[in-house]
Automatic annotation (TrEMBL):
Cited PROSITE patterns: GNAT (PS51186)
Species: Qipengyuania marisflavi
GO MF annotation terms: acyltransferase activity, transferring groups other than amino-acyl groups
Domain of life: Bacteria
Keyword list, A-Z: Acyltransferase, Transferase
Protein name as it appears in the record: GNAT family N-acetyltransferase
InterPro entries: Acyl_CoA_acyltransferase (IPR016181), GNAT_dom (IPR000182), N-acetyltransferase (IPR051531)
Protein family according to the UniProt entry: Belongs to the acetyltransferase family. RimJ subfamily.
SUPFAM superfamilies in the record: Acyl-CoA N-acyltransferases (Nat)
Ranges of residues in domain N-acetyltransferase: 8-167
């Protein structure tokens, strides 16, 4: 599955992408905010990541900058407690350019097209930038904090929880994804 936004291509990872993934993610400031990525993150982890099988109901994508063709991150869906969950990360060089919101909006559109009615998300309490992205694309805080595991930190970390009702067409921003 592929999805095109104004500036990004969301596409599956291929085995030959491992070096681009490694170059984009090999930064402790990124990995510490992810659930499954360990720190240090090396070639074996990148090769495993690009080889992950796709679940057609919960696709995950590489985020590719259309203008340059450069892999700048990943975005997609997974499962958390039986619900579809959105997640994303971007290379430090892509921060502050609106790419996280654009990629998240693209994943939300894919989720709608697949018939999902609700998405959940969370961000570690010490990563408020991710919370701003979630709110910009329409997620609403549940008012709950959960303890979620971070492989990069090697333990549980407080996570602020969010939800998005896809049936209510709750996207805050009318910008096309």
């Amino acid at each position: 599955m592929f999805h095109v936004t104004k500036r990004l291509l969301l596409r599956p990872a291929w085995p030959e992408d491992w070096e681009a993934v490694l170059a984009a993610i090999a930064d402790e400031a990124i990995v510490r905010n992810l659930a499954r990525a360990p720190w240090p993150y090396g070639p074996d982890e990148a090769k495993t990541f690009v080889s992950r099988p796709q679940d057609y109901r919960l696709p995950h994508f590489l985020v590719v900058e259309s203008a340059s063709g450069r892999v700048i991150g990943s975005a997609g869906m997974g499962e958390c407690d039986g619900e579809a969950e959105i997640g994303y990360w971007l290379a430090r060089s892509a921060w502050g350019k609106g790419y996280a919101c654009e990629a998240a909006r693209g994943v939300i559109r894919v989720a709608r097209s697949l018939g999902h009615r609700r998405l959940v998300a969370g961000h570690y309490a010490d990563n408020p930038r991710s919370g701003r992205v979630l709110r910009k694309v329409g997620f609403v805080s549940t008012g709950q904090t959960a303890r979620r595991y971070s492989a990069g930190r090697g333990g549980e970390v407080p996570s602020i929880e969010y939800t998005l009702d896809l049936e209510a067409d709750a996207m805050c921003s009318p910008q096309a994804a």
